[in-house]
Amino acid sequence: MIASEQVGFGLFGALVLLATHRSSPFVLASGLSSWAPFVFGFFGGLCVGGAALALLRARASGAIGTPASQRFEKARAALAACCLVAGVFSAAGAFSFGVDISALGMPWSFGGVIAGAATSALLAQWAERFGSLSRRAAFAKSGAACLVAAALSALAAVLPESAAFALVAVEAAAAAVLLFTGEPFGSPLPSDDATTSEDAAAHASSHASERAPGRSALAFAAAVWRPAAGALICLFVFGLTWDTDRLGAPLNDGALLAFEKVAGFAAAGLVVGLLARREGERDLLETLVGFVLPLLLVTFIVRPYLLDFVVDPIALGLIGFARETGFALFLAAAWLALSTHARACGLPPAFAMTLFAALAGASGLAGLYSLPVLGAASTFVGAVLFTLYLVIVVVASMAQRGRLSARDAQAIERQGFERFIEARSDELAERFSLTPRERDIVVHLGRGHSYAYIAGELVVSENTVRTHVRNMYRKMGVSSREELLEMIHGA
To answer: Are 362 and 232 spatial neighbours (Cβ–Cβ below 8 Å)?
Structure first.
């Protein structure tokens, strides 16, 4: 069976790279100044489209997850996929076949606006898909998607221009098909029970009423601000340094530039994938944000000074490789933080991602518009921003440690206990061939929840819960809840 998340999201990422990265065969063929209006339009469409979709998500959050909303989401995703293809084709096709769209009255930026707005919509759909995965699965599939995007970017770099245009069509069609396979959009829980749409809607509305929106938003912001802010700075620097012809810095071009991008995304995919296989108690995202990314910040900070005296193409390639790896890892960290933390904080992942898309588009536009003003000094602006970011992160981390109290320590201990229950439940589910729903019930029982509470959380009746429990007892060879708890806690 094709792993739709890995391949589909990788195809989508490759499309975005072909449309915006300066090593794209279409950009190299047309020239940076000719392709610049498309990139301006792309970031503008990403900003406006993301903001509009975030507002729509905020108004319709209570209906997410119902069959009607799922059909609407699929229809909107299909339209977005078509718009992304149309936007890229409007520019790439023109350069590939010598058609001057501007002569027909349609400016180059119009295709970029369409592609950017469509990208924000498709990001929302993929966030819903990845938001329903476990943290480890999201890491593994995101890492594989980076490798797929790198492989397709390498293929596009060696193909003739017309063949690269055909590759865009194949990628777009395959990505659209894979986006519609797998779990329904907005489905928050895997279920082996028949749950009515009325029950799901009632469950969603009851949780929305119990949850404090302000506290959810603050908890979400506290969890994602470091990777999200780093990714936004990366996108600003991406726009600021996009037109290398105006920078005056010695940088590689052509095949070496394409190698930097491909190798950087491949390295990022390997890092994220290896983290998914890592054993231990430390959170995967915390490892990426707290250890891997600070090492790359040093590269970003010293890079402009190295460019003053490094002229060897291989050395420049290594510096560019480190830059592309850092950009890819920051974007991956933001993607994983937004898609996995949103649902845990009571927010729809699609809402979080469209809001980030709006900020990402604004950051890219700010960088593009700042380049003519700053000129050759643009390379040092990135170093200053990353230095400031590193200082803020260090100060915030020290302040957070200083505020730890007995209550905070108790909360951390509780989180460790819950992670232990999750891990033990996974082990028992694998050992005794429990269904996903039975595994969820084991988690709730291990935390001391009642049948009534479990029924409310899983949107089923108490009788259904009791039936699952009897089946679990039979599979696990226990006869009472006490024996089950002893099996869970006894390790």
So the answer is: no
